[in-house]
Amino acid sequence: MRIRFCGAAHEVTGSCTLLEACGKTIMIDCGMEQGRDIYENADLPVLPSQVDFLLLTHAHIDHSGKIPALCAGGFKGHIYTTAATARLCEIMLLDSAHIQEFEAGWRNRKAKRAGTAPYVPLYTSEDVKKAMKQFVSCGYETEYRICDGITVKFTDAGHLLGSASITVTAEEHGETEKIVFSGDLGNLNRPLIKNPGQPEEADYVVIESTYGNRLHGERPDYIGQLTKIIQETLDRGGNLVIPSFAVGRTQELLYLIRIIKEKGLVTGHGHFPVYVDSPLAVEATEIYSGSMSEYYDAETVALLEQGINPIKFPDLKLSVTSDDSVRINADKTPKIILSASGMCEAGRIRHHLKHNLWRRESTVLFVGYQSEGTLGRILLDGAANVRLFGETIKVNARIERLEGISGHADKKILLSWLEGFRQKPKTVFVNHGEDTVCDEFARTVTAVLGIPAAAPYNSAAYDLITGICVDKGSNKKVEKKYSAPRRESAVFPRLAAAGKRLAGIIERYREGANKDVAAFADQITALCNKWDK
Questions:
Q1: 454: Cβ–Cβ under 8 A, 6 or more apart, which residues?
Q2: What is the pTM of this model?
């Protein structure tokens, strides 16, 4: 019985773990990396066709994003997950495929002109449709026997609609081990969904550590914070641009904005419009509005029983087509724009940033985790300028963060969840966190709870009968590409001298006739337009 870590090891995204037990190979999550890669990736030690089952904790792309590629590569087994996760995966993976197909088309037009090899996307929409046929929907707190000797149980993780921690019970050669995979554990008392549930028993635990070295503090006043930012931005005549994950965070924000509008907390701006500009977010909002009441918290269920849609309201505008998106910025009415992606790495949000970052009256509000190296993190860290679509954009807009609305458990919640098992696990494996955070949280688990803990690197493997590490894996970091400094052109001094001479001539025209000054200005402008790159 062996566990091997194949993704999100000392990194936040790309979750993937292999469990070998009872003669079967089980994959837990099959995620796509997002943001900057820290460590060199290790190839899967098995072929896709050699994976027997896949267990999926939730629908976010950093946990599910490579499933269609795995299936296209030969994986034929069942994919066990909750019903809500299966529904969300269908729209999220299709969206991912569309993005890849679009990028492939763009790259291949360039490749054809350049005579280079064509670019092949990781997977296509057709691959997604085929993969969805392998999904098997499961309920919470029910044991499912997936093969001789192995059962699985899903417990609400409180992170996303349908998210789960997964308990795998494996009986092999008279030995029984319970391995619990936390998935992404949610924060407490969030809109719409329930708090994380507690699995009862575990011999080994694999736990995320996204906020393993931080505390959220007392539950903040989400409504008060958001109302203040909306009021101030609209008062300045600007737009409130919110980079938001299309599934989960967007719906939570709509829940909060509905309350703000319902109570009339923002004054002086009438029925200010709220745009959801993401086809994926629009589809997800419809799923959240549907028959998913078993996943909601008591407050949301009560609203539904009163006939109140918890995430829809007057002046909510759902933008689907590209033309819809373009019209948002053409309309000068101050507004709220919710758009994906949440870390500003792709999608329509980048166009909204291009139109609003330079405007002092606008605000960009971050409402979720920003991985190191992403545009979102760069903006939060105080960048003065950013590059978008080949242009340098001055950051004049206010950059704000909504405190405490994180979808991830903090250090205190993670420790409390670990402490909730009936008996202390033999070992805790820490993953899904930034490089130093994984190590720091592992030390915290041992110091505070007295449980042995390790933060494995890529391809590290452990024998679960003896508890011994049988493969330390690789901690080799991705080499940063060195760019040699550009040497100044030998003739550049001539150009600089010509510029100074031109400046002197311009100064002499200060007292010139208007007709001559205008003609000279037109000549210089034409010259600048010719050479402006």
A1: 427, 428, 429, 430, 442, 462, 469
A2: 0.82
